[in-house]
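Question thread 4412

I'm putting together a teaching handout and wanted feedback from people who do this every day. The idea is simple: show students a protein as raw sequence, then show them the structure tokens that encode its fold, then repeat with a second protein so they can compare. Below is the first pair exactly as I plan to print it.
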Amino acid sequence: MSTNQPETPASIDDLYYARGEDVDNNRPVFTGDVFAAADPSEQKEPGAAFIIVQHPCALRVGGVELVDPVLVAQISQVQGTRSNWAKESIRQMPLPDLFLDGQHYAAKFTDLALVTRADIGGRERVAILSQHGVNLLLQRWVHHNSRVVVPTMTYNEQTTGEFEEADLAAEWCAERGPDGVAEFHDWIRTTDAGASATRQKLLRNPQSRATVRRAMNAELRRLRAQP
């Protein structure tokens, strides 16, 4: 049995990438995204909001369209969050101050659901987990299902490229509009002249990310200049 313990974020800010008005809807739907209740008046009722628990590589068909349905964990309000997450219930992912109201919430791994692509599209995205937050979610989700604790840095090696890709996609689509989704998909999966890997694969290497971003900025300038 693993001797590792579930890890604890350094702070609430370490857990979240964006909440509330800071959420960028140009960003592709990603693991750890939280969606609000369909009826805002039911927002804090058990099961009204949910978090996506599927790995980012299992979220899309052909790299663009969300799979249908998507596996999510329902969110409920809880009494509090322990300072040491190793002492939290194995059955949940703490989400303190999720709605910026000072209250404590948790995603319940014993309360799962399959939601349709249309249902996700019709709801407000209210939070995006940080890279570390996504890794913590995957750590606790796998721990719940296997009783094995995998260090978050191991997950980081598997998700960091996808997280960076989502950021670049958000920037691309902010400029290019709804049609930018498929456009970016094609561009990021292309290999530059003289390169040994696609731009998407290069994102997995921290040393190559600046090169990919520079290439994207150049491509957007080129597209901007077109009549």
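The second pair follows. I'd like the answer to focus on this one:
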Amino acid sequence: MLLKWNFKRITLILGLSLVISACNTTKQNESAEPLVKQGAVNAPQSILIKKADLVLLQDSAKQWKNAQTNVDKISQLEHKLTQLTATLTQQIEQSEPPLSEPKETIL
């Protein structure tokens, strides 16, 4: 019962963290500036992005930095839960008495 409750709790925490850390997306305008700078001589690897896209990327980076510690904690909890489950399974297998043949009763 306790293991089932912990599993539900961890699943809820994982789900909430994914929802919180989800990135916002926006529609791209058809008349938007081109993303790749055409004919760049000095810096062929330069990329032009819109200011709104830059703000979204910065917000996503901030969200990840805020959520990263929680994700690491959840990952550690998941590892501990896996270890506890394996240990519990071993203990259950060791504590169960071996099955024996039923004795016949004489009437």
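Top answer:
Good format. For the second protein you could add a caption like this: Helices lie at 2-20, 51-95. The CA atoms of residues 21 and 93 lie 40 Å apart.
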